[in-house]
């Protein structure tokens, strides 16, 4: 995925430490999981990478974000994480403005592989423990609850036996599962996944999809940026098509159609399986 500006350090996004939880987890039960209203993002160099974007993501759902490189997907993720200011419009996460949602530790991020320094000497369990920093005190001393959360997260992604490995020793699929475990340990209600299937085998992909379905059933909100179009109808409840702005957004069965995909991707798509109920 292309990053639209050199002003943001990709590594800082990948290794961002959640802020300490300073308030109730959620006080607006009726609000959408993610609400984006007329959002425009303009970088310091004057380039507008996203304009008048509007869409909603319900709680307890998985939504695909689709578009060509440079369409604004990375910019959208950065705006959702507070890395770039919004020139116009509003974003709400679980009913809270972005800044408040981050302080409440509501947002977790699973980065692309290229955003991580895999040569950095850190153990798998320490990467996952980073997800607990927002729950710790000033000195970041792990408590029993933090260690239990890490244990549970590693177990859910099937990485317990690798907890004492250096992350650089892992395969592509294992690395992705480690950062999924970090998101689980963080206990974020909104999970942003940037190309979660890149560099993973079919078995790992199926395992990730099964886990995302479990998280959806637990009421989590997941936004998945992916170029793997063939899997979208299989597990995504909703789809958002981006090309500088939001072209279409809605249930996958009505949004993931060939004409709408061709509008977003600028040409005829080949070898793309449309979901059941989708129309040509």
Q: Structural class given helices, strands, pairing?
A: alpha/beta
Radius of gyration: 18 Å
What is the count of β-strands? 10
Q: What share of residues are in beta strands?
A: 15-25%
Low-confidence stretches: 1-29
Query: Into which percent range does the helicity of residues fall?
Result: 25-40%
Helix count?
10
* Element pattern in H and E: HEEEHEEHEHHHEHEHEEHH
CATH superfamily: P-loop containing nucleotide triphosphate hydrolases
The largest sheet, given as strand count, sense and whether it forms a barrel, is: 6 strands, mixed
Provide the domain count.
1
Distance between the termini: 27 Å
The 3D shape can be described as: globular
CATH architecture name: 3-Layer(aba) Sandwich
Average the pLDDT over all residues and give the rounded result.
86
Find the CATH topology.
Rossmann fold
Main β-sheet, spatial strand arrangement: 6-7-8-3-9-10
CATH C-level class = Alpha Beta
Could you walk me through the main structural features you see in this protein, from its secondary elements to its overall organization?
Residues 34-269 form the ABC transporter domain. It comes from Roseivivax lentus. This is Manganese/iron transport system ATP-binding protein. GO terms for molecular function: ATP binding; ATP hydrolysis activity. The structure is a single chain. The chain has 280 residues and is an alpha/beta fold. The chain has one domain (10-265): P-loop containing nucleotide triphosphate hydrolases (Rossmann fold, 3-Layer(aba) Sandwich). Helices cover 30% and strands 21% of the residues. The protein is built from ten helices and ten strands. A six-stranded mixed sheet has the order 6-7-8-3-9-10, sandwiched between helices. Strands 2-1-4-5 form a four-stranded antiparallel sheet. A hairpin with a 3-residue loop joins β9 and β10 (246-251). α5 (144-156) crosses α6.
């Amino acid at each position: 995925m292309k990053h639209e500006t050199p002003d943001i350090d990709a590594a800082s996004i990948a290794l961002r430490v959640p802020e300490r939880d300073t308030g109730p987890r959620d006080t607006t039960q009726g609000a959408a999981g993610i609400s984006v209203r007329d959002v425009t993002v303009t970088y310091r160099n004057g380039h507008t990478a996203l304009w008048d974007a509007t869409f909603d993501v319900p709680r307890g759902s998985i939504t695909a974000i689709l578009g060509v490189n440079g369409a604004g997907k990375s910019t959208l993720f950065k705006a959702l994480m507070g890395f770039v200011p919004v020139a116009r419009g509003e974003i709400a996460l679980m009913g809270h403005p972005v800044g408040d949602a981050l302080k409440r530790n509501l947002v977790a991020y699973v980065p692309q592989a290229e955003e991580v320094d895999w040569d950095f000497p850190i153990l798998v369990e320490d990467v996952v423990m980073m997800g607990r920093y927002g729950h710790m005190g000033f000195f970041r001393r792990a408590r029993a609850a933090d260690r239990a959360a890490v244990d549970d997260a590693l177990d859910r992604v099937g990485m317990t036996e690798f907890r004492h490995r250096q992350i650089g020793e892992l395969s592509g699929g294992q690395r992705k599962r480690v950062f999924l475990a970090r998101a689980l340990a963080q206990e974020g209600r909104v999970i942003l996944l940037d190309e979660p299937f890149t560099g993973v085998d079919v078995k790992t992909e199926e395992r990730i999809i099964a886990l995302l379905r479990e998280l959806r059933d637990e009421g989590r909100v997941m936004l998945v940026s992916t170029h793997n179009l063939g899997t979208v109808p299989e597990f995504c409840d909703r789809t958002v098509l981006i090309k500088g702005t939001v072209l279409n957004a809605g249930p996958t069965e009505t949004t993931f159609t060939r004409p709408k995909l061709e509008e977003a991707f600028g040409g005829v798509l080949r070898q793309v399986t449309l979901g059941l109920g989708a129309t040509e």
